[in-house]
Design goal:
two-stranded antiparallel ribbon, 5 helices, Aminopeptidase, 6-stranded mixed sheet
Length: 198
């Protein structure tokens, strides 16, 4: 039976929650019978995430779906490309580093992301393909999933899904942010999981 590693992140910065984790919690209230889903929550730290990811991928899942929060985005976005570069929010671009010194410049997903995005939109949930996952931890998770799968000869096919903030996260904010309920974001992820079971 198809197996999926489904990950989310801890809170970071000034946020006391992470919409990826809120979405994962909501999704687990009604997980499908197929595929078999294993969930994890990763720390917002490059080295700790890398160690946890490497250990988890040793199980050789069919898919590794990673969820991440992206304040400012108003829709669910399926990331097509992971780049071999990383930097923290407070760093300048010239201070960024390579995730894998001798690794490929980038990995491009071979999953039917445009079709999945269209399916999610047909269900009334804003969703689109995005061409790369930035340069922070989300990108690192996507790139390293591809790299580790390749290095370890795994069957695992990675996907990174960027999510808006959950509505509850902006109640105390003075700044306006696009939001989406965690229930809606969980429904979007569930639609993609359902595609794997067919």
């Amino acid at each position: 039976m198809t197996s999926v590693l489904l990950t989310a992140f801890d809170a970071y910065g000034g946020w006391d929650q992470n919409s990826s984790w809120l979405t994962l919690i909501e999704l687990t209230r009604n997980l499908p019978d197929r595929p078999i889903v294993t969930t994890r929550r990763y720390p917002v730290d490059f080295q700790a995430m890398r160690e946890r990811l490497a250990a988890d991928l040793d199980a050789n899942y069919d898919y590794a779906f990673h969820l991440g929060q992206s304040p400012g985005r108003g829709r669910v976005e399926l990331e097509a490309i992971g780049l071999n570069i990383a930097g923290k929010l407070e760093q300048r671009p010239d201070e960024f580093f390579r995730l894998v010194e001798d690794g490929p410049v980038a990995y491009r997903s071979d999953l039917p992301l445009a079709d999945w995005a269209a399916k999610v939109r047909q269900a009334g949930i804003p969703c689109q393909l995005s061409h790369h996952a930035g340069t922070y931890l989300c990108n690192a998770t996507l790139y390293l999933s591809h790299f580790l799968a390749e290095q370890k000869s795994l069957i695992t096919r990675p996907l990174f899904i960027h999510l808006p903030l959950d509505v509850s996260q902006t109640l105390g904010q003075c700044k306006d942010f696009p939001t989406m309920p965690a229930t809606t974001m969980a429904a979007a992820v569930r639609l993609i999981l359902d595609e794997l079971a067919e």
